[in-house]
Amino acid sequence: MSHKRLILGMTGASGAPYGLCILEECLRQGHTVHLVVSEAGWRVLMEEHGWEVQERERCFTKRYGHLPGTLVYHPLKDIGATIASGSFQTDGMIVAPCSMASLAKLAHGLSTNLLERAADVMIKENKPLIIVPRETPLSSIHLENMLKLSRCGVSIVPAMPAFYHQPSSIEEMVRFVAGKVLDLLKIDHQLYQRWEGGR
């Protein structure tokens, strides 16, 4: 498998395990991941995983620094980072989880921080952008924003696990959604059992 250079954004929706699963699998396979986390995303990591977020970059390096891939952390306010430029070469960007606030900003071309700017670059450069929205129920506003992004070529992968493979844990359900994201980026994986038809 060829080496890939990816961008991962994590925002303030519940569902941090999706982003972390994608990150871990990509690093495990030796890919490079440029990571940016919103302020609300850090709050979710604290609430859902109990992370101490004073030394933010270290939160990730101490957990994933042993993996063979390369993790590049970017502060949210660093609007001059490499990933803010259309000349930066990447194989795609994932926003997982994606809050409805971030979704709305992406749908309307608002770039108030590095995460939003990097996603806006993906759209304008016609590069793969995959978002994993996590909200329920969805309002008409949410659905219209998703439709607008879809029409711009953005792939929408709602955090909807399947059950045909009979998952026995939350981890298996998370791995299914993460695997569907990696499928779109043509990254081979063994995160979930694929459907093989009836017996």
From TrEMBL:
Amino-acid positions noted as binding dimethylallyl phosphate in the UniProt annotation, renumbered to this chain: 164, 180
Pfam families documented for this protein: Flavoprotein
Keyword Secreted: no
Superkingdom of the source species: Bacteria
Residues that bind FMN: 12-14, 38, 99-102, 134
Flavoprotein domain boundaries: 4-185
Gene3D superfamilies attached to this UniProt entry: Flavin prenyltransferase-like
Gene Ontology molecular function, alphabetical: carboxy-lyase activity; flavin prenyltransferase activity
Keyword entries, A-Z: Flavoprotein, FMN, Prenyltransferase, Transferase
UniProt entry tagged with the keyword Zinc: no
Classification via InterPro entries: Flavin_trans-like, Flavoprotein, UbiX-like
EC code: 2.5.1.129
Family, as annotated: Belongs to the UbiX/PAD1 family.
Reported function: Flavin prenyltransferase that catalyzes the synthesis of the prenylated FMN cofactor (prenyl-FMN) for 4-hydroxy-3-polyprenylbenzoic acid decarboxylase UbiD. The prenyltransferase is metal-independent and links a dimethylallyl moiety from dimethylallyl monophosphate (DMAP) to the flavin N5 and C6 atoms of FMN.
NCBIfam families linked: PRK06029.1 (NF004685), ubiX_pad (TIGR00421)
UniProt-recorded name of the protein: Flavin prenyltransferase UbiX
Source organism: Laceyella tengchongensis
